[in-house]
Q: What sequence folds into this?
């Protein structure tokens, strides 16, 4: 009974990010408030009944800006994490199953990709783009998102390669790709999927940092843009920086919490 209770507690860690995504996404789709509408006479306005979170620079509704920015950041993070998972998992699994030179080359590629900071790569690429969009951000982040999934899948596949059910599948005459698809990949999906939360949280922080230095989406709807405005108007309107920082913490923290919850659930879940 205690084990099941522990599993439920671990899975409850996924609830915050799901709620955050539903609330911000639902608001962004259903609300008539625009995150880019300029009302100069309301610039830096404090929170009020009409605008619960107040206004940012140029009188933009801060509530609309934060909900749209958070929803888009979570969507970008989910897209990049899904891409890395889909590309990196089979690549790492195949390398781990083959071993030898194939595994060595694959791991060296992962080392090369992970040794170069993705933020610096994003700075180099986006600085050459006239009007960066989330498509550009997704492309840059996807260039490096596959490496952690590949490395973890390769490690799991090396362990599974000597498992009895894999040896039995080989003895029955299954081809390597059949062994990989039917027996190796399905048995490593759980541990590798846990990596998605950490990758997604990193994307949220990366997009925020790029927006803060002026290389975020050209429409200005990003959490980084809110932080940049908050720093610029910190003395006049401290609420902008405070609410922006809370939004970033909620988005990245809920993703990390979900990842940790899935990890604990995988450890507690009974085998088979």
A:
């Amino acid at each position: 009974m205690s084990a099941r209770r522990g599993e439920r507690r671990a899975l409850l860690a996924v609830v915050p990010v799901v709620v955050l995504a539903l609330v911000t996404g639902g608001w962004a789709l259903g609300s008539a408030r625009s995150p880019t509408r300029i009302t100069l006479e309301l610039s830096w306005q404090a929170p009020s009944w009409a605008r619960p979170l107040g206004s940012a620079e140029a009188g933009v509704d801060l509530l609309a800006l934060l909900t749209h920015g958070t929803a888009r950041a979570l969507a970008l993070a989910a897209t990049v994490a899904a891409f890395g998972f889909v590309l990196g998992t089979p690549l790492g699994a195949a390398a781990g199953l083959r071993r030898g030179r194939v595994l060595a080359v694959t791991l060296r590629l992962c080392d090369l990709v992970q040794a170069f900071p993705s933020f610096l790569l994003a700075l180099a690429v986006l600085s050459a783009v006239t009007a960066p969009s989330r498509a550009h951000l997704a492309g840059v982040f996807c260039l490096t998102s596959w490496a952690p999934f590949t490395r973890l899948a390769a490690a799991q596949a090396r362990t599974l390669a000597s498992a009895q059910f894999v040896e039995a599948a080989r003895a029955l005459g299954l081809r390597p790709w059949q062994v990989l698809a039917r027996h190796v990949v399905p048995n490593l999906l759980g541990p590798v999927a846990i990596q998605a939360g950490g990758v997604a949280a990193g994307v949220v922080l990366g997009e925020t940092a790029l927006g803060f230095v002026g290389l975020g989406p050209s429409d200005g709807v990003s959490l980084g843009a809110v932080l940049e405005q908050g720093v610029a108007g910190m003395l006049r309107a401290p609420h902008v920086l405070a609410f922006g920082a809370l939004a970033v913490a909620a988005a990245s923290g809920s993703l990390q919490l979900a990842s940790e919850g899935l990890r604990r659930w995988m450890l507690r879940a009974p085998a088979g």
Notes: Residues 62-98 form the longest helix (37 residues). The domain at 34-39+51-253 is CATH 1.10.3720.10 (MetI-like fold). The chain has one domain: 34-39+51-253.
